[in-house]
Amino acid sequence: MRTLIGLVPCQRYELEGVKKAVRMAISLSGFDLSAMRGKRVLLKPNVLMPVVPERAVTTHPVFFQAVGEIMKEYAKKVVVIDSPNFFALPNALKKTGLMEVAQKLGMEIANNTVTRPLHWDGARRYKTHEISAAFFDADVIVNLPKLKSHSLTHLTGAVKNIFGAIPGTKKAQMHMKIPDPIEFSEYLLDLYGAFLHGFEKPKVLLHIMDGIVALEGEGPGPSGKPREVGAIIAGTDAVAVDYVAARIVNFDIEKIFTIKRAFSRNFGIDSPKDICIEGYDIEKMMIEDFVPSKTSLLKSRFWNFITPALKNLLVERPIAIEGKCTLCLYCKKVCPANAIFTRPGAKVPTFVSRKCIRCFCCLETCPSEAIVLKKGLLQLK
Which pLDDT score is estimated for 299? Predict the structure, then answer.
């Protein structure tokens, strides 16, 4: 089944310009905004952690405001929800600039500590997910991902942003439970499928990606680097939105399992041929030298059976850099494998490589860019 994706250029975070571009991208995607009239709309931005918007780690507040103002024209109620790893949502919203916007527009901030199980029998493996209860009360879910590279999933976009429905530290627990990169992507697709088909009262889903300034390198946290891309992408199919984003930054689709594996899931599109890009010529927007994460994980079903010693030889591992590290120990708090500890008098935490599952939660959470990836001895330089 063919799906329309709206692609509109936008170079700066200037409210009226962004608002016009967002409205155009939504229209090009075929989504009828009038269908939201009188509805309860839930906005799901990317609020990974409390960090200033200039770092390009979170959905930009101007982009957020542009979408919010459009939704307020139609919706009866607009609610904001996300669940950072272990940071309180109000604090994260305040630091990212989203709280000020939400208050200005009279948006409700949902309580992300209350959860309910979402079940979908059509999942391949993970049939039940404990998600924030606010999603059940919504009529329309508007997903606002940030275009970013990712050290585990290669690209983080619309599909991955739904992972924020899982409350707080339970996300890190899922990384521990599913350390294999392919299996983790399959889990994300089961979660996305549950959002499509699992609610007793089906939800309308709309995905609008903030790709005005993206994040390249060791994303999705502060270790990545902001990169001007100048794109807004909108559509009702998360996989198709992510595919267009991957094309723009010239990423290898074969390495993005949330896209590659989705084509066999019958979520709506079966191949790139089913995606019709409306608006701007994607070939003119492509960035040939956008930098992916340098991780070279052994993305195979054999990951769980490789010995820790062999992983240390073949796969990058995180280490802390003295001089940059402030010993805030966010990395230790977020590590699902308990592979990080401190020594008396040490200026950086110690990472136990044999326990490390390479989820890179530490890398994406470090506010000081103090964690880098060290290659194994047998890796090609």
Answer: 44
* Average pLDDT along the chain, 381 residues, taken 10 residues at a time: 95 98 98 96 97 97 98 98 91 97 98 96 97 97 98 94 93 88 94 98 97 96 96 98 98 94 91 97 97 68 66 83 95 94 95 90 90 78 47
Q: Give alpha helix (H) positions in the chain.
A: 15-28, 61-72, 89-96, 98-104, 134-137, 158-161, 170-177, 181-197, 238-248, 257-260, 282-285, 308-314, 330-334, 361-365
188 neighbors 137 (Cβ within 8 angstroms)? no
CATH architecture of 306-374: 2-Layer Sandwich (3.30)
pLDDT (0 to 100) of residue 376: 76
- 370 and 326 Cβ atoms separated by less than 8 Å: yes
* Dist CA 35 CA 37 (whole Å): 6
Phi-psi region of 262 (alpha: psi -120 to 50; beta: other; left: phi over 0): alpha
Q: Where are the domains of the chain?
A: 3-285, 306-374
**Cis upstream peptide for 220 (omega within 30°):** yes
Tokens representing 322?
Answer: 């003295």
Full-model pTM: 0.93
Alpha carbon 345 to chain centroid distance? Answer: 36
Q: Cα–Cα distance between 135 and 234 in angstroms, integer?
A: 20
- What fold characterizes domain 3-285? Rossmann fold (3.40.50)
Alpha-carbon distance of 165 to 27, in angstroms, equals 27
